[in-house]
Automatic annotation (TrEMBL), chain A:
This is ABC transporter permease. Pfam families: BPD_transp_1 (PF00528), BPD_transp_1_N (PF19300). It comes from the Bacteria. It comes from Pseudooceanicola antarcticus. Gene3D superfamilies: MetI-like. It is found in: Cell membrane. Residues 95-301 form the ABC transmembrane type-1 domain.
From TrEMBL, chain B:
Pfam families: SBP_bac_5. It comes from Pseudooceanicola antarcticus. PANTHER family: OLIGOPEPTIDE-BINDING PROTEIN APPA (PTHR30290:SF9), PERIPLASMIC BINDING COMPONENT OF ABC TRANSPORTER (PTHR30290). Residues 1-34 form the signal peptide. This is ABC transporter substrate-binding protein. The keyword Protein biosynthesis does not apply. Gene3D superfamilies: Dipeptide-binding Protein, Domain 1, Dipeptide-binding Protein, Domain 3, Periplasmic binding protein-like II. Residues 82-440 form the Solute-binding protein family domain. One of its GO terms (cellular component) is outer membrane-bounded periplasmic space. Keywords: Signal, Transport.
Amino acid sequence: MTGYILKRLLSAVPVLLGITVIVFLIMAMIPGDPALAILGAYATPENVAKINRDLGLDAPLVARYFIWLGNMLTGDFGTSFSLNRPVIDEVLDRFSATLLLAGTSFVLCSVLGIAAGVISAAKQYGWADKGITFAVLLGISIPSFFLGMMMILIFAVELRWFPVSGMKMAYGGGGFADVANHLVMPAFALAVVATGVVARLSRSAMLEVLRQDFIRTARAKGVREGRVVWGHALRAAMVSIIPVLGIQAGFVLSGAVYIEMVFQWPGVGRMLVDAILKRDILLVQGGVVFVAACYVLFNIAVDVAQSLLDPRIKT
Amino acid sequence: MKQGILNWTRRGVLGAGTALGLAMSLGLAGQAGAQTPPGVLIVGQIAEPKALDPAAVTAVNDFRILMNVYDGLVRYKSGTLEVEPALAESWEISEDGTTYTFKLREGVSFHDGSAFDAEAVKFNFDRMLKEDHPYHDTGPFPLAFFFSSVEEVTVVDPLTVEFQLNAPYAPFLSNLAYPTGLIVSPSAVEEYGADYDRHPSGTGPFTFAEWESNTHVILNANADYWDGAPELETVVFRPITDANTRTAEMLAGGIDLMVEVPPVALSEFEGDDFTVVEQAGPHVWFLILNAKEGPFAEKAVRQAANYAVNKTALVENVLEGTADVAAGPTPPAFAWAYNESLEPYPYDPEKAKELLAEAGMEAPEVTFYVTEGGSGMLDPVAMGTAIQADLEAVGFDVTIETYEWNTFLGEVNPGLEGKADMAEMAWMTNDPDTLPYLALRTDAWPDKGGFNSGYYSNPEVDELLEKARVSTSQEERASLYQEMQAIVQEDAPWVFVANWKQNAVTSSAVEDFALEPSFFLLLKDVVKN
């Protein structure tokens, strides 16, 4: 197992290097440069040249790439010019906010999605199944940013149950209850689509397992139906559900970009959108590489978990 | 068999009910907190500030915080764009217009306790302008060129400071009133170095308390402020980049004051719970016409475009009344320099058709650069489409090309030659000199480092602008600018479209709030109940 994990980690190195090249080239190729974003209408060629010199953007492309890569390997991600602060500080701050949001959504979509899928499969063609199938279709079809805006209108502006946006109150907030209160709407809005997908796939995985012989045997032996469904069948179905959860984790992480914009959640997605618009090259590059690294590691973790669950997967 | 699932469902229902109840009670707790406390003003900003060092920033969003923490030597008189004394009590200008001597206010100290004096003023400008200054590396200072005419700052005595300019430069005083001229505490810069921008110390009505990234910047009242203590105890600036979310926060009571209300959201704030404040500012929205080649090389065709565009419909329908129709290149907010006798080109499609026919133009083809957004650009896509329709109605054949803002600047600033005939543009400036000097002179063509992307050239205009820049008499400058405006309007190098009115909304708990023509946000006299 250790060998397998090591092998997977090693194989991640070229992937990450590839990502650094791609993100670097994209940022170098998109038109408009940081000096324009800083100076706006005052961007005379002279002023632009001065800013480029200040930002170290006057060096040749290849040299800039290797300087950046070399610095990053020593843990120096550079300084964001639009925020005047070290990229790594900003990314870590923002990533922890994203993790809180995406993590909560992930738990919500896993628990609700699997539960709905299992109930749906166990009561195939019953009213619960029909209700859940309909709700799932609805959930998958609503774009999350639209759902988010509607939730703000109804639950924040009209009913005033929850705050509109942010992660804590602007003044005198920050306690656990305050953050939890701010988390409810964005976490739910972000979880809806993923819940639908998980529910659908859990349902079909469960239906397949429930038709198998060992389930009939269990029932014949008189095991209670609850135990058959939630014990025997679900455990067997988990093997096909877990990879879906892995994909959904990625989906939730990327979906967080829209949700963070709508709810002004101070996460890494909103950070990247702002940074791209401002051509904050180092912040975009550092942010993307960091998120990609986390995503790659997470995928390795999912694969490892799966191989632990399913002895048929050779390590 | 069904028993198991029913059991679970019952438990599930109970669990869900508990969760919902918990969430609702949390929600109710939040609702109680949504009423912001008296004396505390929460401002919905459009973005996270970059830095709280006035020499290092360029965005109006950052200026809104800085103007409350710092003072400059001079400031704009309330409600105008004319300078009045601030940290300098008085000043003298030498006859040749190159030496400015300021008498400083006595007994003023920075928030960190150090004294404000002539040495502090010298430190500020040397830091920005001299590459060998020990704290020049606390930059970069992108707008330092505002003071590029300053040759030397000399301390005459502790309360007298002298600026030596390399040539007469009339906008100098109004540049000093701009945020780039705000005075920071030298001892705080010495203490924090490159981190100064997160530990700001000025002489202004509010002192810096806390900056939590992406959450808030908090300022507290400076009880010892030289111009009288502010009414508020605390100001909280909250960045909310999404305009819809900012509107929702205002409606829900999460913020007390919101700037830059989207035109379509204004109707939400009718009624007694909110007050909408408007103020015209030094902004002009125009179309650059390519006077070097293509149909707009002919003056009559440029005038035809001015007659063809229905500006009233644009400001009333597309911009929902958040702008006025522009008459010429200078916004009326520069009251002292504005030519009152100018009337906007009327909407007259027949006249436009006549002019086109006289010029012998049969369906002239026009490539039109439109931006998707950008500073001061208002609603550029909708405006571009409406303008396209107006021009086509009189016989132009208009093709729109749309670009994201930074890309757009990269295309437009180097000049339109060989690419386009027309481009949207907007400027906000602090002196009537800036825009025409940088965008209408022959010496401001893109290849000479200026912003005259449409290659307009009129020696008369060049002369007027050069003269106005070196004159030290405001009256003389005013008459030169007024003459320039009349000529430029007649020559029509641009289609003059709109002057934006900045807006803000306050909740009913906020009193004595007003917007300034400078677009700065001054909170010293605001009351929050």
